[in-house]
Amino acid sequence: MKKSIIKCNALIALMIILVCNVASSQEAYQPTWESLDARPIPEWFQDAKFGVFIHWGPYSVPAWSPKGTYSEWYQYWLQSKSLFGNGKFKGDEVTNFHKKTYGDHFSYYNFGDMFKADLFNPDEWAKLFEKSGAKYIVLTSKHHDGYTLWPNKEANDRGFPWNSMEVGSKRDLVGELSAAVKKTDVKMGLYYSLYEWYHPWWQNDKTRFVDEHFLPQIKDLVQNYKPDILWADGEWDMEAEKWKSKEFLAWLFNESNVKKSIVVNDRWGKGIRKKHGGYFTTEYEAATPEFDKPWEECRGMGFSFGYNQNEDVQDYNSPKALVLNLINIVSTGGNLLLDIGPDGRGSIPVIMQERLLQIGSWLETNGEAIYGTRPWNDSFQWSLNGEKNYIPKQHYLGGDVILKQTIDPEPGYAVKELFFTQNDKAYFAITPQWKNEIVIRGFKPSSNTEITLLATGETLSGKQVGKDLIITMPTYQPNKFKETDAYAYAIKIINRKIN
């Protein structure tokens, strides 16, 4: 009897192990796009809506490139004697600037020693991000020049030290900022460039670069700092198969320290963007895409991601333009990742701080219409007359495009009169400019609908005229509003019903 009980218990234990193994194998992600694409994106990312991008590295020392170009590409512009962006360029502008400023024999790698970050205060940065209303940040842990903002042995395999702990600041910049941000409610993300312009292995032996540099380096970053987001870039010269991206992502989702929580983007190989990976990314685009996945638009406050001292105040987007860009993106289901570029000493330029605080002030009043929302059936309402979607022909679409699409149209073009968002409790209609009456076409709420202006908390009256809801706005009294309220006005509609 005792033997049969033991056999029975052993059989049950074996069955439990088999069931657990089957369940485990079913949960594991395979290195195929079909499997990897099926991984759900954590809900917090879709709710966040606003993040801050940070481009910071040795390029922040010269901090110069022609207007309409990326200053963080300084090394490439310098050594290739080429440029692309908005405008017409000879190609040697950065080379000429460099020789005039630093001399003929000054290497880009000398900027590593000059990247002191001596004014970098991670706690102050974290406080600024909180005040901006951002729900996550993404820091460039390594850009295309290969310099890492954390101590890493692969950074030195080009033949000399090329990381922030040994060169320049002598600090673990990723670690310090991660620790500061994780004291707040803001999520911590890390950008990582897959390729490096002038790494000798990248230029001469890409297989070795992938196996001995890229893969161990990116795994070191993930395991040491446990980011909430891993933002890949620099993928475009090689197919995902050669990058071994699918194998890496399977490891990331199955074995890494952040396997359950990590969010990734879509930049994992040539031709992969907007097709595979995690959430989809756009860059300096003004169209409003219809994706079947969460997505994110990234752009700078001017045209450069890295700090560009060549940009003047007129090159920066106004706070109204930035807020309207945020609203436009959110109304179509996306997030805005807005970039700042600190200088080489670790100071965030004052105009960038001001813009973040202005956005934060508007969100403090109107965040209910942004955070955690999803699109309506219609993301926005166009005016009745004129051609839609004014988009100029240029490489990077500036933030001023949204002004042309809303309050300052070109002749013959329609404007977006209203933007719409919703959550499980209310609808929100956001108008870019104050009007005595707000007309929402094709909308019929229930008889007990409550309508509120978020900026003041005032109850508004609405009446049904045919298929349209007409909302009467109160008499405008400037003393009731903060300066930032004027960027856009959000109207909350609850207890509603759509016909």
From TrEMBL:
Residues 20-368 form the Glycoside hydrolase family 29 N-terminal domain. GO terms for cellular component: lysosome. Coiled coil: none annotated. PANTHER family: ALPHA-L-FUCOSIDASE, ALPHA-L-FUCOSIDASE-RELATED. The record marks C298 as: May be important for catalysis. Gene3D superfamilies: Glycosidases, Golgi alpha-mannosidase II. It comes from Wocania arenilitoris. One of its GO terms (biological process) is fucose metabolic process. The keyword Hydrolase applies. This is alpha-L-fucosidase. One of its GO terms (molecular function) is alpha-L-fucosidase activity. Alpha-L-fucosidase is responsible for hydrolyzing the alpha-1,6-linked fucose joined to the reducing-end N-acetylglucosamine of the carbohydrate moieties of glycoproteins. InterPro entries: FUC_metazoa-typ (IPR016286), GH (IPR017853), Glyco_hydro_29 (IPR000933), Glyco_hydro_29_N (IPR057739), Glyco_hydro_b (IPR013780).
